[in-house]
Every structure is written in structure tokens, then in C-alpha cells.
Write a structure and sequence with these properties.
Blueprint lengths: L1 E2 L3 E2 L5 E3 L7 E2 L9 E2 L7 E3 L11 E6 L5 E6 L2 E3 L13 E3 L3 E5 L4 E4 L15 E5 L2 E8 L9 E9 L4 E5 L15 E7 L2 E10 L5 H4 E9 L9 E6 L10 H8 L2
């Protein structure tokens, strides 16, 4: 958030609104498809996040074994006090790979302690999605430097049932998405089952107006034809640099 008094600050508040209550059908109402916002669509403030403040995290809805809906909150980063914005000085940013869960019913946060030794590298601006009630995490950024090794292209999942992380590697020498951050990431149906799907994002090195992507990839675990885990590219990257007037270039690069 931002205020004139404090400038930029990272917020830790938690809010929820019922999506079902956002639309109420009114019979005979003209326009808006017979729907208007319902009075029940009110924001409710929950318990604030108890960990260190962070941004670039993701929140994904999952269900515990008893059916309770929870928010899986993963990753993010924060800048140390006094550090300059976008500094590349080592140690000025803290990146996280913690997984927190917010229980809507109990209005409580809990830090998950995964079983086993496997866990994703700390990161922010990654992609996250729910697939078969597991949390899937893809790619992200691990450094403020604008170099290729500041990005990732790894794929992980976390199971609430087993409390374990699983890493998904493609076949040796097989295709894989380019390293990136801020990707579109969701579940799609491939071969009759849900599959992690990637769209776009930004790669490094370079600047936003020349490194934005629009390629599409799907991850197929144990492909029926090859019998191995594989990434399939469904659409090539054809995101041409936007022509920007010379006087506007510095403004675009700074965004």
C-alpha cells in the first residue's frame, strides 16, 4: 500500500468476500442479465498475517481432508529497512519459500512444516494454482539482478494430505519453458486430466518491453506415448517488442 505519510509499505491484513454473494438474481430485472450486487457481498476482515511482511506471494484456495477451505500462502520477498528500491546489493532482499495456511473457519494462520527434505527455492512473482487439491508452484524470481539466473523454470507441488513437496522434472534433454517470472499459471485439461499450464511472463536479461512472453506450455506427467514426464509447447513465443517513442522509452523501462 501507499500513503502520503508513510510512503510505500507492505501490508499484512487479510480480507474475504463471498463470491456467491456478489451476484443476486432478480427476476424480471432489465439489463445486467438479471443480476445486481447483493447486500450480502460484504468484506470481512480476518486475522492479519503473523509472519514478516512480504510481497510477490501467491494465495491459492485448497481444501483440508475434512472439507474446510483454506488459503495456501507461498513465497514472496521483503526489502531490508533502509535499502534502496530495486537495489542489486547482496543481502538487501529476503526471499521466502515458507508455506502458510489461513483457515477461514477458525480465522487462524499456521506455518506448515513440510515432511522430508525437499522444498522449492525461495522466490517471488512465481505462478501458483490448485490442481487436484494440490498446490502447484512454477518459476519465479530469486534476485533483483536483471540476469538469466535471477529467474527459475522449475515445477513443484505440495500435498496437504501428505505434507510433502514434490518436484517435477522433464525428461533429460527434453523441452522446457524458458526461465521467467510473473507467468500466467493455471490448470487446463490435457488428455482427459488436469495439467499445469503456463502462459507468458517475463524473462531476463533485458527490459520489460523486449522480454515479455506469450508462449503456452503444458506439463504432462507420464505422457501416454513416451512414458516420461514432459513439457509440451502449444504456442510459440511471438511477443514482438512494442514500438515506443524515444522520449517515452525511459518511462516504460521504469515500470
Amino acid at each position: 500500500g501507499w500513503s502520503k505519510e508513510k510512503g510505500t509499505e507492505v501490508l499484512s491484513d487479510t480480507w474475504a468476500v463471498s463470491l456467491a454473494a456478489l451476484d443476486v438474481v432478480i427476476d424480471g430485472l432489465e439489463g445486467f442479465g438479471g443480476r445486481i450486487p447483493g447486500d450480502a457481498a460484504k468484506w470481512t476482515q480476518g486475522r492479519s498475517f503473523p509472519g514478516p511482511p512480504r510481497w510477490g506471494s501467491t494465495g491459492t484456495l485448497l481444501r483440508e481432508a475434512d472439507g474446510r477451505e483454506v488459503l495456501a500462502f507461498f513465497g514472496g520477498r521483503n526489502k531490508k529497512a533502509g535499502a534502496k528500491e530495486h537495489t542489486t546489493e547482496k543481502g538487501m532482499y529476503t526471499y521466502y519459500n515458507e508455506l502458510w495456511v489461513f483457515d477461514f473457519q477458525a480465522d487462524s494462520w499456521s506455518l506448515i512444516k513440510p515432511e522430508g527434505d525437499l522444498a522449492p527455492h525461495p522466490r517471488d512473482h512465481h505462478g501458483a494454482a490448485e490442481i487436484n487439491n494440490d498446490l502447484f508452484v512454477f518459476a519465479g524470481r530469486v534476485s533483483e539482478k536483471r540476469s538469466e539466473d535471477s529467474n527459475l523454470n522449475d515445477l513443484w507441488s505440495f500435498s496437504l494430505a501428505t505434507r510433502r513437496w514434490t518436484r517435477y522434472d522433464p525428461a533429460p534433454g527434453g523441452p522446457a519453458p524458458h526461465k521467467r517470472y510473473m507467468p500466467g499459471f493455471a490448470s487446463s485439461v490435457w488428455g482427459g486430466r488436469e495439467a499445469p499450464t503456463v502462459f507468458g511472463g517475463e524473462s531476463l536479461p533485458g527490459k520489460t518491453r523486449t522480454t515479455s512472453r506469450n508462449d503456452v506450455w503444458v506439463y504432462v506427467p507420464k505422457d501416454a506415448f513416451s512414458g516420461v514426464n514432459t513439457w509440451k509447447q502449444l504456442s510459440e513465443n511471438k511477443c514482438e517488442p512494442t514500438m515506443v517513442a524515444e522520449e517515452d522509452a525511459s518511462e516504460v523501462d521504469a515500470r
